[in-house]
Design brief:
Elements: E1 16-19, H1 23-33, E2 35-41, E3 48-53, E4 56-61, H2 67-81, E5 85-94, E6 104-112, H3 116-120, H4 132-144, E7 149-156, H5 167-173, E8 178-180, H6 183-193, E9 196-206, H7 215-220, H8 223-240
Parallel strand pairs: 1-4, 1-5, 5-9, 6-7, 7-8
Antiparallel strand pairs: 2-3, 3-4, 6-9
Length: about 240
């Protein structure tokens, strides 16, 4: 049954969905990594696809920019389509000296300046954390592929152009491994509706150093991250068998 934002039918989505922000990146992922691909959503051009990876059915769908957007799609995927696991595969900025452009980071937790989780948690602080098993499998996948990853707390910002210019230095001081705009909302939705979630990102720019990838590179230079994410799904299946 279609929702206001997704026109797929029940059964069109696999139980695990990989979610980049950019719908064209979702198309790129489907075309590059999946076989037997079919498009399952095109509402508002937020493309969604389902295919197979090494025989395992997996879906990929864009979630847009920001916590409000990812929250809509994550909620509908879980409650209307029965999705059990959501893995955000995106880009982030860096603030720490030991995190560089093209590095891979895994968001074990997600701090935020958004109020969404307070709204759903009776105005109390909510510890927005990734699913432990998915995180554990992602770290194991990275080690198996000899891809170094930084695992820790990321920061989900409501504003891309933040007038509080001192924020970057503060985030660095607190050891934040990546700055993005969605993970804290995704983790809150997953907790509220009983699903599992994780975030894995490639560093596209360094906020303090000024290093950055071009927009074209952001579209195509995420191979390490994607192979880790896909292997995470397979490892999770083995562990839960």
């Amino acid at each position: 049954m279609a929702t206001p934002h997704i026109n797929a039918e029940m059964g069109d989505f696999a139980d695990t969905v990989l979610m980049p922000g950019d719908p064209l990146r979702a198309k790129y992922i489907a075309d590059t990594y999946l076989e037997n691909v079919r498009q399952v959503n095109d509402v508002r051009n937020m493309f969604g696809y389902t295919g197979t990876y090494q025989g395992r059915e997996i879906s990929v769908m864009g979630h847009g920019m920001g916590i409000p957007s990812v929250s809509i799609y994550a909620k509908e995927l879980i409650t209307d389509y029965g999705v059990k696991s959501l893995i955000r595969v995106g880009s982030c900025g860096a603030v720490r000296d030991d995190v560089n452009v093209r590095d891979v980071v895994i968001g074990m937790g997600a701090s935020t300046d958004s109020k969404v989780n307070r709204m759903r948690f009776n105005d109390h602080d909510f510890a927005a954390i990734a699913d432990f098993e998915l995180t554990q499998h992602a770290v194991a996948a990275a080690k198996a592929k000899n891809v170094p990853v930084k695992v820790g707390n990321i920061f989900s910002a409501d504003l891309f152009y933040n007038p509080q210019t001192e924020m970057a230095e503060m985030l660095k001081r607190y050891g934040i491994v990546g700055v993005e705009m969605e993970a804290a909302g995704l983790y809150g939705v997953a907790a509220e509706f009983g699903a599992r979630a994780m975030t894995i990102c490639t560093v596209s720019d360094h906020i303090l150093k000024g290093d950055s990838l071009s927009s074209a590179d952001r579209q195509t230079t995420f191979d390490d991250m994607m192979l880790i994410a896909l292997d995470t799904v397979l490892r999770d299946d083995e562990a839960r068998a």
